[in-house]
Every structure is written in C-alpha cells, then in structure tokens.
Design goal:
This protein has 291 residues and is α/β, with parallel strands linked by helices. It is built from eleven helices and seven strands.
Length: 291
C-alpha cells in the first residue's frame, strides 16, 4: 500500500513586473492558511517518509510549514525542478514511479495546473482542481511505486481550506452539492415514514436546506471530500464564465418602454529566497497559477 499526498501551495503575493515569479513568497494570509491546514492534517495523517517540493519560494515555504507540523527536518525536503515547471505531465508520473519502495508515504508540494492534472489523471477525473492550500490524498493498492497508476488509485480525501470555502468561485458548488446531499438524506427519513408523500416536502424545505448549508459552510474551518462523486459534481465555476453567461444590461428609452408589451412570465533544505536567481528556462508553463 502506497500513499501519495498532493499539496498545492498556499496563496502567494500577487505577481509584479519587478519580481521573478520563482521568488514570489506566500502572503501573510497564505502563511496563516498553510499553518492552519498543516495543523488540521497532522492529527489525521501520520508523518510522511518523504517530502518533495517545487523549489519556487511559495511552494517551498508551504513545504516547510507542513514539514515542521509533522516534525520533519526541513533540510531533508527534496527539491525537484520539474514540480515547478510541471510539464510534461508524464515526467511527474515517472518521478512518482521511481520513488524508493522503502518510502510508504510521499508528499508533493507544487503548483496548478500540473498538480491537479496529475490527480485527475490518477483518479480518472478530468477537470479536477486542487485549490490553493488544498491537500489531496491518494492511496494505491500496490506494493511498489512502479505499479502505482490509475488502475489501482483511489481517493482518500480532498481537504479544502477556510479561505477556499468562502470564495465565490468555490462557495456556490459546495453549497449546491451539500444542499442536495442533505435533501437526499432527509428524503430517506421521510420516505421511511410516508413513501408516497416524501417528495412533496422538497420545495417547502428547499429554502431552509440552502440556509442550513450556507451557515454550515460559513462556520466550518475546512471541508473534507471523501468520495469520487464529490469530484464529479463539485467543480468550481470561474467568475469570468459566469459573467460572460449573463446577458448585457442596456438602457431602455422612453419610446421602447411605451412600445414594450406587458409580460406575464534542485537542493534539499534550501531556505526560500536564499538561493541564486534561477535560469530563464524556469519560467513556468502554468500561467493560471501566477495569481
């Protein structure tokens, strides 16, 4: 049995023209988010045998925070540049399959889209996204890393942070799926009492279920998704797509109002920011992770 934990770096400072992307550190809020997630996962998961990190500052800082929470020596973090570049994806798979079999649990701290693409490939779930500071744990029914692949991988959990729960991009899918699951559970209870009329309560209860789901998410400090059904239904909705879907608002003239009919309807242990500036070929191919 092999365990692979994929950790996306916590939120970093915004990109600037005078700052190399490689050197972008975590923001103050990102540091707190990483510390919170590391504290949450520590009692639930044993320390890994190996921590691999992208050498970029924001990823390495995140790796240091998780390593300290697990009581691991940060000097033993293995820096692998391909985790920063993220392409081609098969190189990441090769890296995983070439791990020493004495290692039972490995952690990879990196970037999107490559980290999420790797998880989606192993779980056979296209479009899967690990949010910032998110922790996705996979388990393989295999004795060697060489045998690990989509054929024997299964999801243990996807742990989502507090900031992700409250963001507009993720809040709506979470609330929608949680409301649907609450209704299915409640319907089973109602059906056990009166099968013929169980569905009649749905519309009456729907507003209350939505409020309950929203309140739960507001008070929760993390969300744990533990089955693949969540991954199929729970996909963030990009704000730009939602905006483009909405029809443009136009002003109506007085004449139009009168005419309108009435409607009725690297190097292990490096400290972030302390190593020499990287070569130009370290420019990432994952533009969406620059924010």
């Amino acid at each position: 049995m092999k365990t692979l934990v994929l950790v996306r770096h916590a939120p970093a400072v915004p990109p600037r023209k005078d700052t190399d992307d490689f050197r972008r550190p975590l923001s103050p809020a990102g540091e707190k988010e990483a510390e919170r997630m590391a504290a949450l996962i520590k009692p639930e998961a044993p320390a890994p045998d190996l921590i691999i990190s992208s050498p970029a500052d924001r990823a390495l800082e995140t790796a240091h925070i998780f390593a300290r929470a697990w009581g691991k020596d940060v000097r033993k973090i293995l820096l692998v540049e391909m985790v920063y570049k993220g392409r081609p994806l098969d190189q990441l798979q090769t890296m995983i399959r070439s791990l020493d079999d004495r290692c039972r649990k490995a952690v990879v701290v990196g970037h999107n889209p490559s980290l999420s693409d790797l998880a989606g490939l192993l779980l056979r779930r296209n479009g899967l996204e690990i949010p910032k500071a998110g922790v996705l744990t996979l388990r393989f029914e295999a004795e060697t890393w060489q045998e690990c692949g989509p054929q024997n991988a299964f999801l243990v959990s996807l742990l989502i942070s507090r900031s992700t729960i409250g963001s507009g991009k993720w809040a709506k899918p979470l609330r929608r799926e949680l409301t649907a699951r609450m209704w299915r559970s409640l319907r089973d209870v109602l059906a056990s009492v009166d099968p013929e009329h169980a569905d009649l309560c749905r519309e009456a209860l729907k507003p209350d279920l939505k409020k309950a789901a929203a309140r739960f998410l507001k008070q929760s400090d993390r969300i744990r998704l533990t089955d693949k059904d969540w991954l199929d239904r729970f996909k963030p909705e990009p704000a730009e797509e939602a905006a483009s879907a909405a029809p443009p608002r136009t002003k109506t003239t007085a004449t139009e109002k009168k005419a309108r009919p009435t409607s009725t309807a690297g190097t292990a242990g490096r400290r972030p920011g302390k190593s020499p500036k990287p070569a130009p070929d370290r420019t990432p191919t994952h533009a969406q992770d620059r924010q």
